[in-house]
Amino acid sequence: MALLNFRKREKTSGAPVNGQVEAFLKDYSIEVMPRTAEKVEDFRDLLPAGTRVYIAHIEGTPITEMVATAKRVAAEGYPVMPHFPARIIKDRATLADWIARYQGEAGVEQALLLAGGVEKPHGDFHSSMQLLESGEFDKAGFKRLHVAGHPEGNKDIDPKGGMKNVEDALRWKHKFSETTDAEMALATQFAFDAKPIIKWADDLSAAGITLPIHIGIAGPAKLQTLIKFAIACGVGPSLKVLQKRAMDVTKLLLPYEPTEVLTQLAAHKVANPDFNITKVHFFPLGGIKTNATWAIENGGSSATPANQQG
């Protein structure tokens, strides 16, 4: 559990922290890659103690680099959740080897399982469901397993549009969650508009899919950077939020901040305590330090970096 410092923070602009957003950001997580983690001298200067750190596994990254990053982040006191992208894992023996390396060298006991953004599988696996069915994570005693969620759909899964295949997969994963000892949750792709996020989450709940949702949020970044990533990642309806902003010359050159979407989601959570979005997961597209600083200024985990906590 994070060592929390509950002092109220003032934003550098002088505006007070929004209490609803502060509560909504409690125990947020953040994503890094080996190459971006190398730019951080010490995560304890940026993140509250206990912050979950996902390590994204991009095609072509050697497993040795992934494990080394996990070991380094864990040594600085953070629970590590590496990605296991099914389509770049050759076979069950490779999967077992990766798990053993992560556990043996970095003490990893949680993972994000996803298909991975690779068109042609490298071997036997093509979906996170196959990774779950392998039984390797239960065999290794993993305590937490997250799977991907897509509030605006996923064209890799539903190439003709719509949500049918995505929703069928989520039903399967929800049923699987009832058979494993590991805690499970959905970690989603980022989106920029609260309304479709809320509708998607409510629709899942109505369909009996009750896995907790850790909502993906893009951290502060240049507008052009976000649009590029949004298009590459297939972000759908909420891309219009960025496009509308790009047409406003008064905002075009200003960095995007996720204040509006988080404010709306936090207010909805207060009005609907059973709302199934339980955590925020940051994609630091504008840089880890930039994202971490924004979180601190907005009260994330009543955020004081670990090196500054008493």
UniProtKB/TrEMBL annotation:
Source species of the chain: Roseovarius litorisediminis
GO terms, molecular function: oxidoreductase activity
Keywords: Oxidoreductase
Keyword Oxidoreductase: yes
Protein name, entry field: Methylenetetrahydrofolate reductase
